[in-house]
Amino acid sequence: MKQDEKFIKQQFGKDNPFKVPQGYFEGLSAELMNKLPQQEPKTVKVTMTPRFTTKARPYLYAAAFAGIAVFTASLFFNRSTQDDVRMAYSGEQTTQHASSYEQQVDDYLMLDNEDIYAYVAGYK
């Protein structure tokens, strides 16, 4: 490849054989613009209709707020009625509540009735 380049340089030299006329690029853009046909700009009327979500957004916010309010109110009123009912129960119901708590502890400790009876009776 270098030999080819050397041969070309010996034959033609380093001069660029391509030449552009004097001042060719100075008036080129104006000349091209004059050659283009004159067209009036087209106006296009674009109508955009809003999406459903854009129209319904306020209603969606209101529905979400109402849902949260109802959920919070149900939690509040449910808690207060449970407290009232718990106070109204007799001692027997309170014992049942305590026994359910003990039942949960027993389940957590993985104790069954036989283990509890053995512990109470003093057997190991």
- The shape, in one word, is elongated
Radius of gyration: 47 Å
SS class: mainly alpha
Q: What is the overall pLDDT average?
A: 78
**Strand element count:** 0
Measured between the Cα atoms of the first and last residue, the distance is 100 Å
Task: Characterise the protein shown here.
By secondary structure, the protein is mostly helical. Helices cover 68% and strands 0% of the residues. It has five helices and no strands. The mean pLDDT is 78.
Question: What's the layout of helices and strands?
Answer:
Layout: H1 2-12, H2 28-35, H3 52-88, H4 91-109, H5 113-121
Short overview:
With 124 residues, the chain is mostly helical.
Question: Which descriptors would you attach to this protein?
Answer:
mainly alpha; 124 residues; 0% strand; 68% helix; elongated
